[in-house]
Each structure stands twice: as structure tokens, then as C-alpha cells.
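Appendix B. Extra example for self-study. Work through it before the problem class; the solution is given directly after the inputs so you can check yourself.
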Amino acid sequence: AVGALCRALPPRARPAPDTLRRAKFDRPQASLDFWRLLYALLKQIHGGKWTESDGTDNQIRFVKSALWYHGYGRPELYRLPSDGSAGSRELLLAFSWLLHRLSLLEQLLARNRVKTGDETSVCTCEDDLPNSQKGTTEIAPEYGLDDRVDVRYLQWLNGRLRFQWRSLHAQHQEQCKLLHKIHLFTSGSHMDQTLGHFSVIETDLIKQPENYKQLLQLLESETMQLEAFLEWKQLEPVYWQWMETVLDNMAEEGNMCESQDAHVEKSGLPKATSCCPWADSLTGQIDRLSRDLMTLRDQLHELVTHRKAAWYEKVKTREEELQKEWFSATARKIKESVELKLLDLASLCDPKKNKMHGSCRLVFRSKHPASGFGRSVSKEPVSAVSATEVIRELQMREASLERELKQLQEECRQRLDEIAEGLEGVICISP
Amino acid sequence: AAEPQKTPGLSRSALGEQQSFSVGDSSGRKNSVAAGKRLFDAGKKSCGSQGESSKKDDLTTEGALGRSTSPRTVTLQEKGCQLKLPLPYRKAYSRNSRAWERCRLCQTSADAAAARNRFIERIQTTVSFLSSPPPSTSTPAEIEEELKVLQDVPSLLSQYVEAEPADHPTLQREYESLLTLEGLQTTVSQCLHKLQLLQADCAGDVGSCSPACVSPRGQTCDSAGVLAVPLLCYSSFQELRDLFALKLRVSMLHQEIALQKVMMAELLPVLESRLYPEASAAQLYRAIYTQLCEGGKRFPVLVRDELAD
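Solution. C-alpha cells for the complete assembly:
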């Protein structure tokens, strides 16, 4: 089982089965390897760039914080030394926990899928921005010796930024054109009917067949990984039972004395209450959201009070009419329909809704029935998303972002108007 | 675009130079010629009813090699639907997709699930976790997830609020509108409450925060569908272009909003505190106005307020 597990892991982060076996007995030699393994695996999940040249203590720190992020709570792990000299058994426990908690194998298989060149990402969340926060401070200003920045520099930068966006747009459109041509012209040639056309990589194969050896190797290695995964799934009970024996060993070896130390040592854990950047940024976000919601709440409160008053006014004058049976029936119906409407809204606020993230492969499926292969698609792949849906969602997102931007601009306008009154001798006429 | 004899479009970024796929070229490209020849032999069978390139194949392989004077280039457009991938690749591909399908359908056996749960339970109860016991405490990952979802709520709710008109023709409509607004009020308070809980969780987790906090933006989606082939189907060229354009626009808007907020925080205080050289006050004002209110595109006009004496 352990062997299959190891073979199901991606090639860059594949341990030797012995490492796991040694870890069971808490052999210190296995510790460093295990740290490296966890580092490699977690980095892949978190989408970061990683090189083997990252120092050991950095790797260990990363692994610890990633485990913390996912809610792993064994203090022994966090107490392990930063030189990687001990603790392989703890690491083994953490590894097994991750296997379960993050569906580690499945996630890695999905992420490391052989690329076809047609991929694009679908999610609408702004996951690029936080990283760029660190970058901007380095692009340091080239302004003069005194601390002032000329506002024209700002304007110039802004112009450049807009230019970059425009060129990016042009390039994307060009890419679309070419991609579409490939899809269109190779339609009907692919042996996989659900796709129907070649991917970019495959088309390249036609042009440069000598490259296909590499692609072939990648495909075959992936297939082997998948088969190892299937094997592992069969042997899974064995693995978990084996892990239980690890826990048994630990229990025997005197967890009793450890738990006493645990109480003593707990105070030694880093109480980084004030300097946790993650918590700070999250608190910031929460505060902003709270502010927005509270403004909304106040706004609604006013509106509702106003409306209610008006409503009661109206109702007073039509007392007899409302006593009639038909109105209470309609009232009930109205209540139901409003509830339905709000239920819709509630489902949008629910985190359980499975939003698409990650990259998808673009496939061209013409709507025309005359295209021929449309008929032969008997089984639809489970997760084919249509571009129409994605476009619609993006449009909604765009609309809401535009509104937000306009609101911000309006706020600025008001504040600037106030400032203008303070400026002597000048009147500002807005465009 | 009319590009008669050139291969149109193998994307430059992915594939290097844009060369025409010339079959008759004999200089130094023996390998590809030979391979090309093989491909064409294989691809001789008539293609599907695409209607794309239905002209008969008048480029016989002998003809190509014999005619070294005018090498004919073949476009993807003409040959696209007749192309066939090399056999080893096809085999590997079908093995691969079958393996993916099997993995996707593979379920965890009951034994395995039971054994796994036993292990997980034991590991959770053996040692108490750092965050205090109550089940409401979430892991940092979960907190972030919930927060992400809540981000959209204010603007969504605002839209609903604005959708309610101020005047109503009938009593029923007015009643409906009132109920809707009240419902929205409830939703807002629920969200605020959720936020408070999240804030408390956040503080709770901080106690165990490790110094080098990673703020990972992993794309963790639901594990059930993870192994399925993620396809995004588009039905026309226009759709593809719209898709890309919209994605770019959304990213741009995100960035603009972030920049706007930062600029507001930095620039407005400068004007408000009057810490600038008096001489350039007007220009400064104009520049900042443009940047903050017009997205840097249009300028206000500043007029001297001189009374005609």
C-alpha cells in the first residue's frame, strides 16, 4: 500500500516507500526527507513557485504555517526543531492527516494534469493581488532627493498602466483568433469524440513530430500515476490500519509523560497575537466588510421605517377592504414568493456553492447540428461548463465592480468639492 | 483575413516561429518531411463533413518530392480535418483518458473509509488541538473561504435594494416590496453576525499562529469533482473573444478599485492638509481630481474666480 501511495504522488515530490516506513519508527534520518516531501507537496497545493534551493528552515517554516492554515492541531509538530533533525513520526502523522483532509492525491493529480495549451482559468476571484502587494514597494520611485512625488509622475504611470492593459487585450484577442483557428480547422480529426479537435500541443506535434516523444513520456508517466492511484485506493484500508499501528506505538511509548510536558510547554508556544500578518489582513477585510454592511443596514433601516409608515397610512384608510378574505390569501402568496426570492439570494451567499476555480481546457463545440460529430457524443463529460454561463457570471461581476468603482469616484468627487471651496480664487467645473 | 498560402495559426507563444508547413522543402528538414509524408499517407482517408477543406487531395507524396522547384505549402485549413496523430500517441492518449475515467469513478471503499475515520478520530482526540474545543471554531482555511464568499454580499444586496422601486401601483406590490426590504434587512444582520463570529475565530486562531504566516491562495475546490476533465465549451469565435475580454476587464476593474482606494487614502489627505506649495495648488487639485474622479481620462476646468470690479 505504501508503495502504491508513493507512486501515486507526482514525480517531483515522490518519496521512497522506505522513508515512510522509517518514519513509522521515528527514525531521525527520515525527518529531513519528510520535511522536504511535505514542502514540495504543500507548495504545489498552494500554487507557489518552489525550488529545491530554499533553505531547510524556510521550508520547515512554510510547512508549519501551511499545516496551521489548514487547521492541523498537534503541538508536537510545531515544536519540532527547525533543522529537520527529528520528528519523522510526527511528520508521518501530519502527512496522513493531509491525505485525508485535503484529498491530497486527488488534488495533486488534478493540478499536475498534462497541459494541452488550450487552458484558461475560470475563477473570478482576485487572487493575484495579495502577492503583488509585496512587489510594489520594490519598484521604487525614481523621484528626486526630497520626499515629494510629482503628481505628473503618477499620471504618467497611470498612462503606462492603461497602455499595458490595452496591449494585453490585443494579445489576448490575437491568441483567441489563433486558438479558434486550430480548433476549427482540426475539427473532426481527434479520436476522442467528446473533444472533436486537436489541442494546441497536439497540433504542434504534427508540425514537429520529434517533440512528441516528450509528450508521450509525460502522458505515460501520468497514466502510471493514475494506475498507482487506483491501486492505492484498493489497498487503502491497509494503509490506514498501518497508520493506526503508528499511533499504537506512540501510545505505548509513554504518551503519559508527554501530556504532562504538554501543559508545561504550552506556554512556550509562540503567542504571536499582535504580529500575525494573516490575522491582520483578515481583520482588515472583516472590518471593511462590516463597515459596508453596516452602512447598508442603516440605509435599509431608514428605508423600511419610511415605507412602513407610508404603508400603515395607506392601510388605515382602507381598513374594510383589507378585512376581506381575498387579501389575506394574496398576502400569503406574496409572502411565499418573497421568501423564494430571498432564498435565491441566500444561496448566493453560501460558501457551499461550488464555484469553478482553476484552469479549464477550452473546447470548441459548434451549435450547428450540421457539424456532424455532435450526434456521436453519447456521454457528456461531467464537468463541461459552457462559455455562455461563464460569460454571464463575468458580466455580473463586471457590473458590480463597475458600480463599486463609480461609488468610490463619487465619494472622491464630494470630498474634492469640499476641498475646492477652501481653495482661494478658483472654481472647479467638472467635465 | 486572406492568407492564401501561409499556415495561419499556430499560436506564436506556444509554438515558436510561424512557418508554413512545407512538404516539398528538401533542404535540411528531412525528418519533418519524412514524418509529414507518413502523416499524409495516414491522413488520406476522407474527412468528416466539416465542409471546411473539402477539396480533393491533389498533393500526392510522389508529386511533392518530385517537384522540388515549387514546394507547395499546406495550410492547416486545408488539411486540418484529415490530420492524424501518430499511433503511439493515440494509444497513450486513450490509455490515459481511460485511466482518468476510472479514477474519477473510483470510490473509497467502506472498509477504507472506516479505517481512515478511526485513524482521524484517534489523532484528533489523542492530543487536544491548539484552538479551543468548541466546534464553531474554524480553521484559517475555512475562515478565508467564508470571507471570500461574503465579499460579494454588500454589492449584491445593494443591487436588490435598488431594484425596489419607490412607488407602487397597487397595494399588493407595495406589500411585496416592503416584505422584500425587510427580508434584506434580516439578511444583512445575519451576515454581520457571521462576520462577528469569523472575527472571533480569527482571534482564536491567532494564538497558535506561526511567525512566517503563509497566505496561500490555493485553489481548493470541492474534492468530488476534482478528477473530472475540466472542459470549457464555447460555441463561436465571438464567444471566445468575449470570454477573454471579460476576464481581462474583471481583472482590470479589481486593480482599478484597489488603486483607487490606495490613492484616496494617500492623495486626499495631501489636499486636505494643505501641505503643498501654494503656487501649484490649482494644478495639483486638477491632477488629483482627474485621477480620482475621472479615472485619469478627463480633466475638470478650473476657472479663476475674479470678480469684475
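Self-check: The mean pLDDT of chain A is 75. If your reasoning did not lead you there, revisit section 3.
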